[in-house]
Amino acid sequence: MKKCLLLGNGGREAVIAEFISEGYSLYSVLPYENPSIVEAIEKSNGKYIVGSPFDKELVSNFIKEEGIEVCVVSSDNLLQDGLIDLAKSLGLKVFGPTSKGAKIEWSKTYALDIVKKLRPEMVIKNFCIENENELEEAIKNYNDDEFVVKPEGLTGGKGVKVGGIHFKGKAEGYEYAKTCLNESGKVIVQDKVEGEEFTVMALTDGENIVVTPITFDYPYRYENDKGPGTGGMGCMSFANGLLPFLDKSDVDQCASLIKDTINYINRDSKEFTGVIYGGFFKCKDGIRFIEFNARFGDPEAINVLNALETPFTEVMEHIFNGDLSNENCKFSNNCTFTVYMVSKEYAVSKAKDPCVFKLNTKAIKDAGLKLYFANSKKVGEDTYTSVSTSRLFAISSVGKDLEELKKQVYDVIEKAVDKNLDYRKDIGNIYVH
Q: Is pLDDT above 80 for 156?
């Protein structure tokens, strides 16, 4: 059995760990003992050490000492920092882009430049700004707050701010854009457009792509899409792999851009394999590009991998062999449904102390549901604590009837989850704008 190193420790990595452990022996360098990842490692007779996955000397020594053959990275910061580059330099087969390949996520201006070359008609009018004079001139194009501010670099899904929602008035938007500019030397100001937001995620071997079921994400903190943007409060997908406001031609158009983008990035050397994730708007006058991610989304990974019919490690082998296709990477005709649990303060205010909570894991598993820990670790019998200010854990289900899945998940939350935690109670509703 091949030995596979997984780096990263959130809910996304928890579900990846589960499916890797079904075909490979799983290894990891964990900053804390994520219960889901530890369980998968132990199930596969693998091994983990506690330490920083950013410590390249530590990771390198672990790879050599354990004779690891495969490396999977699906964390934006670790990709930017070049952990896939390190694994490749040691001769491992890799699932994930190099730092150069991941630049489509950690540099929004770079991604926009590519799309301007490949599909200029899909680009929303924007200003790529490098100094305060350019910012002042760009803001003059708007009468009020009808614009969007995008930081140049990684923000964990929390940095993009939309006028009229996240900031009120031109002056407030200008101040936020100036803050972003001062932090990284670049900021993007973009027209605010009307349309339905959606994502298209695809697995790739560096040349071929296979589009996953389209998921509907809930990126706002509170019901009815109110409050600040977050890393995602929940996610669902439908049995037909589409969303009510999309048809196959919409997805095909996005997939075509994604495939051309992969070919563009890999034109000189193979910098990108793994997962590419495109954000789009469906507008009255066509599809518009928002951004690229260079890895699985979170919680989207939970939904997509639970809908995967082909064993994930077989898909990985086809990626390594360069022969990925719709014939050897198949998805079931099931619905998926995921809800994230968070602290009351999540995305709203800074907690003074870690969030300690009770969780009846047996009740969740007895109900036939999946549990994926994110930023949590075990401190006692059915007792856990947060290890950061991010999301705590996700509960997920898969099956034929979406309404039944919703009922299962929300029922078990009422019975098994600490009442001091918070979650959105409207996951499963489709919000159109």
A: no
Distances (CA, A) of 80 to 29, 32, 74, 334: 17, 21, 11, 34
Higher pLDDT, 157 or 33: 33
Q: Are 46 and 27 in contact (CB under 8 A)?
A: yes
- For range 301-321, the mean pLDDT: 98
Q: In what order do the strands lie in the sheet with 126-129?
A: 126-129, 187-191, 147-151, 161-162
Q: How confident is the model at residue 174, as a pLDDT?
A: 83
- Which of the 8 DSSP states describes residue 388? S
Q: How far apart are CA 155 and CA 159, in angstroms?
A: 5
Residues 6+ apart with CB under 8 A from 429: none
Q: What is the pTM of this model?
A: 0.93
The H or E element containing residue 235 is strand 234-237
CA dihedral 313, 315, 317, 318 (to 10 degrees): 170
Residue with tokens 């490098």: 130
419 alpha-carbon distance from chain centroid: 27
Beta-carbon contacts of 397 under 8 Å, excluding residues fewer than 6 positions away, are: 336, 337, 338, 368, 369, 370, 405, 408, 409
Distance of CA 92 to the CA centre of its chain: 24
Closest CA to 426 of 164, 216, 281: 216
Nearest to 92 by CA among 76, 77, 72, 75: 72
* Amino acid 248: pLDDT: 96
Residue partners of 77: CB distance under 8 A and separation at least 6: 54, 154
| Residue 354 backbone class (left: φ over 0; alpha: ψ -120 to 50; beta: rest) | beta
User: Which CA distances in Å does 124 have to 128, 220, 291?
Assistant: 12, 22, 11
Dihedral sign for Cα 41, 45, 51, 56, please: negative
Q: Please state, in angstroms and rounded to a whole number, the distance separating the CA atoms of residues 239 and 133.
A: 50
